[in-house]
Each structure stands twice: as C-alpha cells, then as structure tokens.
C-alpha cells in the first residue's frame, strides 16, 4: 500500500479531531513502558500502587519520578510517609500488578522492608528507595520527584511491559 493511502493516525500529519481523553489513552498507549509498583509504609500498613509513569530523572543528584493521579487514595498515604520504594516488575508479575491496581492490594503478597523501611516486593527485577523531594502539578496527575537513597537489581528475568492497555513481554518476537 502506498504511504499516502495509510489512514491510521500514525500516518496522519494533522489529527482527526479534538484531543479527548479517549484519544490520549489510545494514541499514548503506543508508548511501551515497563511497570513498577510504588510502595510505602503508612504506619505499620504497607501501601502501594501500580505505575507505568515512572522514570529515571537525574544521575547527579540521583533522582527518579513518577506521576500519581490526583484521585489516587494511595498517593496521599505515600506522601505522608515521606519516602517510597519503586519495585520494577518482572514478566511473571502481571497478576501482582493487577492486584496493586485494585483494592485488596497486599493480600498474599510477599515483601520485606528495605533499608529505608519501604516494602520491597519479592521477585521484582530491581528496587529503588527514595525520599520525596518535590511534588509538582501535572493536570489530573502530580509529578513526584524522589531523591534516591538506595537501590539494587534483583533477579535476572524478563521485564513486565505495558503496551496498548495490555501486558506483553516479547516485543522483539
Ligand atoms: C499497568 C498499570 C499502570 C498504571 N500506572 C499508573 C500511573 O502511572 N499513575 C497512576 O496514578 N495510576 C496508575 N495505574 C493505576 C493505579 O495502579 C491504580 O488505579 C491505583 O492504585 C488505584 O487507586 P488508589 O491509589 O486509590 O488505590 C496503573 C495501573 C496499571 C494496571
């Protein structure tokens, strides 16, 4: 098919209408990411939320960031903890990810406290512990910047990927 005949949005130079949330979700879903679970301790209760909006931000100083939704009930609890752990999920942790996006998040979940006290999930590819440094506005999300205090790579396994609203783990195949 000639390039000019392609009708999908990737080929369109101008968009195809208003920038709605549905279009944002569908088009931005083409940006494949890993998935992390951001965890913290609220008193003696572990809290967590699945996040794809995680990024390494700066090496010097060592910073990471993620973006919790303003409607998140977990984020205020992480904020009050003042620190968090980022758990990078492996390909076989899709079910754990779904649990961490639901209600009864830590039921049956194996974890150990990190050096800074935040929950480290068993089986993760890597963990990063950080202190909350800044919270910036970002529309219907916040941009949270954390200063890394400790980190380590865990087991050698394939990563859990999120692409077009679904989990995947073999893009090169
Ligand atoms: C793959 C995946 C990625 C997600 N990424 C984010 C994210 O970046 N920011 C966010 O606020 N919620 C994200 N969520 C949704 C939250 O995990 C979930 O809605 C949230 O924990 C539930 O709200 P709560 O904070 O009130 O528990 C994601 C969910 C999934 C399954």
UniProtKB/TrEMBL annotation:
The keyword Repeat belongs to this UniProt entry's keyword annotation: no
The record, for SUPFAM superfamilies, names:
FMN-binding split barrel (SSF50475)
Going by the UniProt record, its keywords in alphabetical order are:
Oxidoreductase
Q: Where is the Flavin reductase like domain?
A: 28-169
Q: Where are the transmembrane segments?
A: none
Against InterPro entries, the record matches this protein to: Flavin_Rdtase-like_dom (IPR002563), NADH-dep_flavin_reductase (IPR050268), Split_barrel_FMN-bd (IPR012349)
Query: What family classification does the UniProt entry report for this protein?
Result: Belongs to the non-flavoprotein flavin reductase family.
What protein does this entry describe? Flavin reductase family protein
The source organism is Actinomadura napierensis
